[in-house]
């Protein structure tokens, strides 16, 4: 039987293995129907350096499950990464298609100074 979540997690394994081989910081994205989350994880995978999501107080007042909210999260994660001294990351979309909210978050992070 085909399981959609299992297929997405299987696709994400290859990307994570490649990023681990590169040894760079990882910008990982997770999305649910209501929210979108972004984290910057250290190269060893043991420490979250910066995080942003639609659960933050400043973003929670408006709509949280659309591309505009994802753009705001992308801007916020880029600002927090620069504050932590990180400018170059590898983008880990966690097996999600590079489309819609994931694409909006990535483009906003690029426009605000993150390189990937």
TrEMBL record:
GO molecular function: 5S rRNA binding; structural constituent of ribosome
Record keywords, A-Z: Ribonucleoprotein, Ribosomal protein, RNA-binding, rRNA-binding
Highest taxon of source: Bacteria
GO cellular component terms given for this protein: cytosolic large ribosomal subunit
Gene3D superfamilies: 3.30.420.100
Pfam families found in the cross-reference section: Ribosomal_L18p
Any one of the GO BP annotations: translation
Record's function text: This is one of the proteins that bind and probably mediate the attachment of the 5S RNA into the large ribosomal subunit, where it forms part of the central protuberance.
Family the entry assigns: Belongs to the universal ribosomal protein uL18 family.
Assembly description: Part of the 50S ribosomal subunit; part of the 5S rRNA/L5/L18/L25 subcomplex. Contacts the 5S and 23S rRNAs.
Name this protein carries in UniProt: Large ribosomal subunit protein uL18
Species annotation: Psychrobacter frigidicola
Gene, per the UniProt record: rplR
């Amino acid at each position: 039987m085909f399981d959609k979540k299992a297929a997405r997690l299987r696709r994400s394994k290859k990307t994570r293995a490649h990023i681990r081989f590169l040894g760079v910081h990882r910008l990982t994205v997770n999305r649910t129907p209501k929210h979108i989350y972004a984290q910057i994880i250290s190269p060893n995978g043991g420490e979250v350096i910066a995080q942003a999501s639609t659960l933050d107080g400043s973003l929670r007042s408006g709509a949280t499950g659309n591309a505009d909210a994802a753009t705001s999260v992308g801007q916020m994660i880029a600002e927090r990464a620069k504050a932590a001294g990180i400018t170059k990351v590898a983008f880990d979309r966690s097996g999600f298609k590079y489309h819609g909210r994931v694409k909006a978050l990535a483009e906003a992070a690029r426009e605000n100074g993150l390189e990937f």
